[in-house]
Amino acid sequence: MYDESEKDLVRGEIDNISDTSSNSTIFQAGLTDKELAESVDRIIEQNQRLVPHKELIYRGAVLANDEGNVLDEHRHHYNDAEIDQLAFESKHSIRAQSWTMFLVALSACLSAVNFGHDESAVSGAQLDYIQLFDITNANVQGTVNAAPYLAAGTIGIGSAIFLDKYIGRKWIIFISCIFGVGGSLWQAFSQSMGSLLAARLFLGIGMGLNSSAVPLLIAEAAPAKSRGAFLMLWQTFVAFGVMLGSVFNRAFVDVENIGWRLMIGASFVAPILTAALVLFIPESPRYLLSIHKDEQALVSLIKLRNSELSGSRDFFILYNSLKRSEEIEKIPITSQINLFFTNGRVKYALLVSAFNMIMQQYCGVNILVGYTTTILVGAGVDSKTAIAGSIGIGGGCFLATFFSSQCIDRFGRRRMLLSTFPLLSGCLFWLGGSLYISDDTSRLGSGLTAMYMFVIFFGLGIGPISWTYNAEVYPLNVRVLGVAIGMAINWILDFVLSMTWPKMAQTMSASGGLFFYASFNLFAFFFAYFFVPETKQLTLEELDKVFSQSPLKFAKTKVLRLFRKD
């Protein structure tokens, strides 16, 4: 079923796709020496601030034109140290990154921790605040728990779209940290259900800002060969935050009266650290080019790469790719929205992004993360044991996602999705069946094992890969809006699932609800096989060609491959 060489297949399919996009952004290598020199001269003419960097830009242009290879006829442009750096970069895509790139990655990690921490903290804290505030209605319980996700998917994402063109990705992250700190402390000191609900809505605005800007910054800062691994850091450290929240839950469960407040208040630490770190990282080079700060974009890329030469190479590629097609120009939001209905390349990207974001929720993971303790307590397990058992949910997902980050650019996004969807379905059927076991010890053991296996497969598949697809599939002219739409879908569905689960478990039983979500994973396997293309190790500009074909044409090739005799 799977291809022997997914990368060769993808490259081959790109070659067979005609460039039907009127705004293709792909830089074409193979220029003559004269054309290359003229191209560099045009860059300098358009921005006189780049004059001091002309020689560096030219050497980067030579390297870009040779597709990153050090050719004998151009070897005199580089010194021995630069040649060694290029060789190291080619062999070690992660280890070769600059310290600045790792700081950007660390800021993404800390941003994600706050989100994951809150999800699991609520799982433990709700056992107390539901009783304290006498929240007996299942729908109200679900609304309070899910409130941040509604605010994130509406106000947070909407604000991110508006702010992006004025302050960029970096400062959106900083502002999100203010909401993160304030919301965490506010909910911890709440004295009524209304105050708690308002605090969680406030917290959610920061989550929406954060989740929109962080994957975008990572996608635009990381080089193509390691972009997938860096993008997966978001989900990896969401899982770490889940585990951290569960650890705090267990630590504070015995603290009388204020234990639940400590559980949900402890999440204020991560956004404080993130805010401090953001002050030291550069802005996205693509964003800087979009507002015509070309020299700052060059400086940003030099900081983000392991050498000046690598930075100037990527600057030349990026500058020509974007300027040539005039995607760098701002277009009205109404025109961007129109492209989602009229442009085939954008519509296909939306289909793939939306599918991944929908399935990240409808695979059922946030039911386990947000309601682990209530599911187990409802099955007869005491609260302390349930909270202790929930630690493995975040821990298993964290370890699996960390492993997945090492594999995503080797095995590919598509293959990992297809390998894990059937396993996710099986684990939910297993968990639902475990709740019918009469023996308490066997029920707990079987149920926890099914949960742990589920989050491991989630961490290897749709969990991190959904963020990767959402951040990389859109062209620049609609990328901010496209990423925001994907995030809005994710957050709103997170709200829907979290809000409706208490009522679903009440009417269908917990097992019935789990069987319901298990069926979605089976559907997702077939949809991914026929409609989701591979994107590994392709530049953000090369992806234009992948998505310029129609989804039906792609599906047809997969149907034919099923019956092909090799």
TrEMBL record:
Its main location: membrane. InterPro entries: MFS_dom, MFS_sugar_transport-like, MFS_trans_sf, Myo-inositol_Transporter, Sugar/inositol_transpt, Sugar_transporter_CS. It is found in: Membrane. It holds the Pfam family Sugar_tr. The keyword Cell wall biogenesis/degradation does not apply. Keywords: Membrane, Transmembrane, Transmembrane helix, Transport. One of its GO terms (molecular function) is transmembrane transporter activity. The chain crosses the membrane at residues 171-189, 201-219, 231-252, 258-281, 362-381, 387-404, 416-437, 449-469, 476-493, 513-532. GO terms for cellular component: membrane. It is a multi-pass membrane protein. GO terms for biological process: myo-inositol transport; polyol transmembrane transport. Residues 104-536 form the Major facilitator superfamily (MFS) profile domain. Coiled coil: none annotated. Belongs to the major facilitator superfamily. Sugar transporter (TC 2.A.1.1) family. This is Major facilitator superfamily (MFS) profile domain-containing protein.
